[in-house]
Design a protein that fits this description.
The chain is an alpha/beta fold and 305 residues long. It has helices at residues 11-22, 52-62, 76-81, 83-104, 135-151, 174-184, 201-213, 231-242, 272-275, 285-289, 299-303, and strands at residues 2-6, 26-31, 43-46, 66-69, 107-113, 155-160, 163-164, 188-191, 195-196, 199-200, 219-222, 229-230, 249-252. It has two domains: 2-164 and 199-222, NAD(P)-binding Rossmann-like Domain (Rossmann fold), CATH 3.40.50.720; 174-196 and 227-266 and 283-303, UDP-galactose 4-epimerase, domain 1 (Alpha-Beta Complex). The chain has a seven-stranded parallel sheet, sandwiched between helices. The protein has a two-stranded parallel sheet with strand order 7-10. It has a two-stranded parallel sheet with strand order 8-13. Helix 1 packs across helix 7 (201-213). The structure holds NADP nicotinamide-adenine-dinucleotide phosphate. NADP nicotinamide-adenine-dinucleotide phosphate is lined by residues 7-13, 31-34, 48-50, 70-72, 74, 89, 111, 113, 160, 162-163, 167, 172.
């Protein structure tokens, strides 16, 4: 199958490229600023995805069987700071890709986020109603609506939780950001009252490949890992995994700093409706840890400890 993949240089897109190529698919990756090789891509194109006419020309020329959209402005602060760019990437790009998927009769896999929920429910069911608490979440929810209004029979949107994993830049995932802060000597306070259900990017990518290959899982779907735990617990488990000193992570609560008080206290999904139908199964946090490596840019610092 020929697949056009946007965001191929990101944490999730790069994992998808590896997973799809292992399954024998031909992946054409679109990157933005990233300038190095990405494993699993047969072809790489550098396109500014804000230019929707260029996106359209490229996708039509590529004539794919599937389009996978991993490009986004995924930092909530950055979304709020530059509304024009974040709306272009997070709302108008998916809308354009939905039109193209309908035009080409191509499958579309689009990525949304757990952030569409406000975090005041113990566990979100497949049909729970979103209540987006910030601009990033509003954009993601709007993208879901536009994609499924335009291309319901071709599209699956996967709402993902906090992602773990190893990114091409070594600076995008949860543990990679912590390593960066530790190398700089910055304190890392992690909240004990912010519960998440993290998922390894490779696991989400395997599921996305299944979604490209199957026709019976269209619609908006929730996915995550098997373990719900606090960010503080995640940090402590990382320290143990890498043999790092306990003092690198400090415990905190969201209320300690008004800047963070608005963050969702608990985001956890019931996964039974999807996991009962797919080969890919949710992983525990400890299974995810086994896949994590010391980020390449931090190896010298780590080896000198
Ligand atoms: N990371 C998480 O914890 C998480 C959680 C839930 C949902 N998600 C969602 O999962 C998807 C993938 O996230 P991710 O963590 O893999 O993101 P990421 O690592 O930040 O990667 C973002 C990708 O978008 C590309 N991009 C951004 N602006 C671009 C532009 N103007 N032109 C071309 N490419 C552009 C980047 O390309 P360059 O780097 O080459 O410029 C990069 O490949 C997103 O939809 C995100 O919202 C992520």
């Amino acid at each position: 199958m020929k697949i056009v993949l946007t965001g191929a240089s990101g944490l999730l897109g790069s994992a998808f490229a590896r997973s799809a190529s292992r399954r024998g698919h031909h992946v054409v990756g679109v990157v933005g600023q990233f300038a190095h090789d990405i494993a699993g891509l047969e072809e790489t194109a550098r396109i500014d995805l804000r230019a929707l006419d260029a996106v359209e020309a490229f996708v039509l020329e590529s004539f794919p069987d599937a389009i996978v959209n991993c490009a986004a402005i995924s930092d909530p602060g950055a979304c709020q700071q530059d509304l024009a760019t974040s709306r272009r990437l997070n709302v108008e790009l998916p809308e354009k890709l939905a039109l193209l998927s309908r035009h080409l009769f191509a499958t579309l896999v689009h990525i949304s986020s757990e952030q569409v929920f406000d975090g005041h429910v113990e566990i979100y069911l497949p049909d729970s109603q979103p209540c987006p608490p910030n601009e990033y979440a509003k954009q993601k929810l709007e993208s879901e609506k536009r994609v499924h209004d335009l291309a319901a029979e071709f599209a699956t949107t996967l709402r993902l939780p906090l992602l773990t994993g190893n990114s091409p830049s070594g600076e995008r995932s949860f543990h990679e950001r912590l390593f960066l802060a530790w190398e700089r000597g910055e304190p890392t306070k992690l909240f004990s009252d912010e519960i998440r259900q993290p998922c390894l990017s490779d696991n989400a990518a395997d599921l996305m490949v299944e979604l490209c290959e199957r026709n019976d899982l269209k619609g908006v779907r929730n996915w995550a890992g098997e373990t719900a735990l606090s960010r503080y617990e995640m940090g402590q488990a990382l320290l143990r995994h890498f043999g790092l000193p306990e003092t690198l992570v400090e415990i905190a609560t969201r209320g300690d700093d008004p800047k963070f008080a608005h963050r969702q206290p608990r985001l956890a999904f019931d996964l039974s409706s999807l996991s009962g139908k797919t080969k890919t199964q949710p992983q525990t946090y400890s299974e995810q840890l086994d896949s994590l490596v010391v980020p390449a840019p931090r190896r010298q610092w780590y080896n000198a400890l």
